[in-house]
């Protein structure tokens, strides 16, 4: 990371709602660069950087959590009614803070099915799945919130501890062949790095909605094949999509109903962000190195 970030994140306090996979990773990167980052979870954690927030609980985070907060990031998905869990409980509180920036992790599901065509932020949202319709409602609530909001639309997130390797090890991988089907993806390190990069350049060129995706949308089978190759294992025979359908959960099936290539042109060309992992090969290599390092310990 460039030097600017460490100087610019010192004295900044981030509250990250939803300390799940991405939230924890982003919090760690912020801390490495000198910022303070607290993350929420629904259960009490034995960790002084964590606090409890559950949108369904009557209790709200204590006042001291918000003291000195300059930045807020929400990584929490919509609730079942399409309400945003953070805004529905804490909008007034967030408005009362002197926030420099608010970020929201959304999904590229809001674009719906483009039958394999590229989508950019300029394309109208056209959600197909109910969960993506709820997501768009949340995006709109954030845009209407009168907070300094920036929305990041993300495709499939992977990274250390959440990649095809884990599915292969757990033996729950499904090797499915569906002609012409592609998925876009993003390594979690690029979500964190891109957000930190944008915080630096926002004053010059602020964009409210930004896709964060790698350069190379491709089929799931290509990624799985490469993962087996890196492990030196033989990939099982692929199932064709029609036979695989009955084995997939409704949610898994819904992902196969959409086919789109997510453009990162705004982020990488117009705004000048350099991806750490331009494609899944680079991202998987890094995930495997981390697995190997852990196994050596
Ligand atoms: N996973 C993907 O491939 C993907 C792709 C595109 C976009 N996204 C979106 O990007 C965001 C981050 O994704 P992720 O995979 O990193 O998330 P994740 O690991 O599933 O974490 C979600 C977080 O939200 C918290 N949460 C959920 N419901 C809540 C509620 N009602 N009240 C308070 N907290 C609640 C969870 O709390 P606990 O820690 O207590 O469980 C968890 O910390 C999410 O909005 C996700 O939908 C994900």
Gist of the model:
With 297 residues, the chain is of the alpha/beta class. It has helices at residues 3-9, 21-32, 63-66, 85-96, 130-143, 164-169, 188-201, 220-231, 241-244, 250-256, 265-270, 280-296; strands at residues 13-17, 36-41, 50-52, 71-74, 101-107, 118-119, 149-154, 156-158, 176-177, 185-187, 209-211, 239-240, 261-262.
Description:
- This protein has 12 helices and 13 strands.
- By secondary structure, the protein is of the alpha/beta class.
- The chain has a single domain, classed as 3-Layer(aba) Sandwich (Rossmann fold), CATH 3.40.50.
- Helix 4 links the parallel strand 4 and strand 5.
- Helix 8 runs parallel beside helix 12.
- The longest helix is centred in the last third of the chain and has 17 residues.
- It is globular.
- The two termini are 27 Å apart.
- The site of NADP nicotinamide-adenine-dinucleotide phosphate (NAP) has 23 residues, from helix 2, strand 5 and strand 8.
Keywords:
297 residues; Rossmann fold; two-stranded parallel ribbon; 13 strands; binds NADP nicotinamide-adenine-dinucleotide phosphate
Topology, element by element:
Elements lengths: L2 H7 L3 E5 L3 H12 L3 E6 L8 E3 L10 H4 L4 E4 L10 H12 L4 E7 L10 E2 L10 H14 L5 E6 L1 E3 L5 H6 L6 E2 L7 E3 H14 L7 E3 L8 H12 L7 E2 H4 L5 H7 L4 E2 L2 H6 L9 H17 L1
Parallel strand pairs: 1-2, 1-4, 2-3, 4-5, 5-7, 6-13, 7-11, 8-10, 9-12
Helix pairs in contact: 2-7, 8-12
NADP nicotinamide-adenine-dinucleotide phosphate (NAP) binds next to helix 2, strand 5 and strand 8.
